[in-house]
Please model this.
Amino acid sequence: MTSTMVDPFHDIAPDPEVAREIDPGLPREDKVFHLVARAIGIAVLAIMGAIGLFLGAQSIPTFARYGLGFFTENQWQPENDTLGISAVLVGTFTVALVALAIAFPLALTTAIYISEYAKPRAKSMLISLIDLMAAVPSIIWGLWGFFLLQPKALHFSHWLHTHLGWVPFFHVDTDPEAASWAQSRYTASAFIAGIAVSMMVLPMAAAVMIHVFGQAPIGEREAALGLGSTKWGMVRTVVLPFGRGGIIGGSMLSLGRALGETIAVVLIISPAFDIKFRPLEVGTSTVSALIAGRFGEATSAQLSALLCAGFVLFIITLIINTLAAMIVSRSRSGAQE
Amino acid sequence: MTAHTMDPPESGSSDSTITLPPIAVPSALDHLPPPHAHNEPIHAFDPRHPEGTDQHLGGGTLEARAVSAWFGTNKVLERVSLEMPANTVTALIGPSGCGKSTFLRILNRMHELVASASLAGEVLLDDQDIYAPGTRITQTRKRIGMVFQKPNPFPVMTIADNVTAGLKLNGIKVHRSDRDDIIEHSLTRAGLWKEVKDRLKEPGSALSGGQQQRLCIARSLAIEPEVLLMDEPCSALDPTSTRRVEETILEIKDQVTVVIVTHNMQQAARVSQKCAFFLAEMGTPGGIVEAGETSQIFNNPVDPRTFDYVNGRFG
Amino acid sequence: MTATIDRASETAAPSPFAPPDETVTDTPRVLNSRTPDDALSFWGSLVGSGALVWLLYTQILPFSGRIGFVVCWFIAFLVMYAGVTAMGNPRNVVVDRLMSAIVRSGALFVFGTLATAVVFTFMRGVEALTNVNFFTDDMAGVRPTSTLDNGGILHAIVGSLIEVGLAVIVTLPLGIGCAVYMNEVGGKFSKVVRTIVEAMTALPSIVAGLFIYTTLIVTLGLSRTGIAAAAAIGVMMLPIIARSADVVLRVMPGGLREASLALGASKWQTVKQVVLPTVRPGLATALILGIARGVGETSPVLLTSGASTYFNANPTNEPMNSLPLFVFSAVRSGEPLFIARGFGAAMVLLLLVLILFIITRFLARQKVGRR
Model:
């Protein structure tokens, strides 16, 4: 207590400088309620914490055995006692970044459309549709990517290679000008897996963006329109600067989700363990695809290595999610100024 | 000077139709000439606005004709007609919920931003209907500027950028030197130049509330509107800032027609030359009870309800 | 729209504010700032660019392929639209129209893609779905070459329902209870819980599956059963459900709680009578979306429950198949008839998610009605 409390109802206050202890005086049912609620909280914490600790603990033998080599080795050959996650990490990020590169512009335009251009009646329906898209099981996008997209996308890959092949990123190890070009060199690539994953993570980013765009203050919107601004002028001067945190945060959240996607990637890619930055070319691997492909025949040591890889993936996702949450929440509190 | 397109009922007539709700005055009486027209010297309070000099001034004449408005199926304005002559300040007064803000927003097509909103009637700016098909809405809003209740400078822009935001939004390109002139000129007109001339690079949100509001006025003035609508511009401000804004209004009225909504009777009396009293009674849509010269509305109102309102009996 | 407004103006009391100018009618006007120039520029550019691209693309240049055609058409349209607009409009109008076209096309593309995924799954699955036995039979003894009137996915449907049901029974009370604890009891410790819960939402579902696989199946030596699958789904769902329930409870206005406490209600009474009923629609929506996620996720069940072929309603014994797992293994088999069944099962899975989703919409609408 820094200030003296004046109590007009008691001439002799006990000691004005000492804060009284307040007895919460909870009724019995509230004591039970607190007890039960706290028990549930502790139970959830225990379960969640146990998973984290277990993953961390299981990683220790692997780290102890392979050291930093675990991060630099690209092969996964437990039978030769050489294993590392550099190739799968590169693959994971390649797939996720391809997904983000496709999902970001689409999520942004979709969010702007729903938030600013759609008619009010259509708006709530379209938001539901975005939620529905987020709920579409990833296996559906896997089927879509493998059976519908891949036969078409490989032509696009070929086109990119033919015309932009001088960019290393679009290079594929085959001759694009050959009379019958090698279609199989363009299938099962990180690029195609990335497209399928992009459709999975797009609604997540769009939903966050729609949410923050909707919070753009009406006063500033009207100020822009009152000055004779076009709709896009208003969006660019008011909505987009205001929603910048949500745009970045939502995209990062979807990046975090893209890093952990399993089944669509497993369906589409053919596993390969070399470090390469050629997403159009056949073969790649991701951490989650590695786990899905190798858990079955794994010995307990190998299992520990897989858990370690999963732990690394979890930590990366955790960092990205935390950053995203910070960016989103900071943009909101900043908006209240 | 056409002071009244909306004629008030003859004084005392509402007493004779006492069986009806007071608002239901027979419409036949509405066409009588304004009873006060002969006993009020029209320019007594407005020496700076002699008749016939409109051509030299920048303001436009705004005229509403039989404007009705709805939100969904709820009618909020009933056949409001009002002329807001060039280079005068017209005050819209009335209790909360009487439709005066809705009316103001109709005057530069902000009304239709609300999804369920619809309207009837015409709004003429210099004899052209701003709602005519094919009229570009952005052009209308550029000619008829608006200052809002809550100061709303763009927080991500500097003070200088806020002033020129309207130019940028309208795709008007200006030279650097011209740009500085426009910024200085607009801020001077809004009475803010001396306070901010050394801090033009600071964000607009760094200013105090009253300064922000004057920045918003400067921002509106920078695109040289013909009419400036002000929706309770001082309701969020302290008395000192209010006085500065009022001074600004009196200074700019030679270049721009001002229409101001206010809850503050003294403010209406101080800044306006014309005044319209809005009222919505017992769930009926709002409308104008009486409109005319400000001195007449305050000193010699025709309708007893106007008398009650300006003397603080209700609302 | 017009009719209802007319009725409203008729029922309104007669007004004293009749205008002097009776020629202006009192019917709502069309509030449209679209000029004929807008419409003509749009359609003109669309048709013009289409014709031009058709001519160049198919007749003159050696290109082919529908997708390439559409892409070229789109780019040509944007260029032409901008050019046409620039002839009679200032720059900001050009940019506005161009961005409007881009934003609309982006949204159209996204929703179009969603439609292709649904329609494609349906088209490929309809062959299997038209057989009644597909819903009433399991896959026991079905050979790779058996036609579609043999075998079905009843075991996978039932397996999915049992596994998700078990997971929900455990995670729902835990998740909601945890959210109630974090919001209604509070304290320093609850912040720790919230931090951990939020962190665990980052857990990739495959890692959740791997965790259960390692602990229950490898370490404890249990076999791959429905229980193991349910545990994996539950571990994945728990942070999601706790977090979304937390978000829903957190946005509830604090005034309501205080009003109830000020009336002398106990905290538990407040939670039971005021907090939970108030947030129920939002809570239900969040939870069902979490459940939909649990139903559709393949990776946890891939690791923990075997892709059995026969019907098994006992989660504690014998492997239990589920819909996503069935789809995955059927498609991976490479047999055309199995792939057809896989698509059929995928469509069933999609319908299941859709049903859950429609329930959430229904609950969300109740919220609007009650306001």
About this structure: Residues 28-66 of chain A form the longest helix (39 residues). Residues 138 and 264 of chain A are 6 Å apart (CA to CA). Chain A touches chain B through 22 residues (CB under 8 Å). The longest strand of chain A covers residues 76-77.
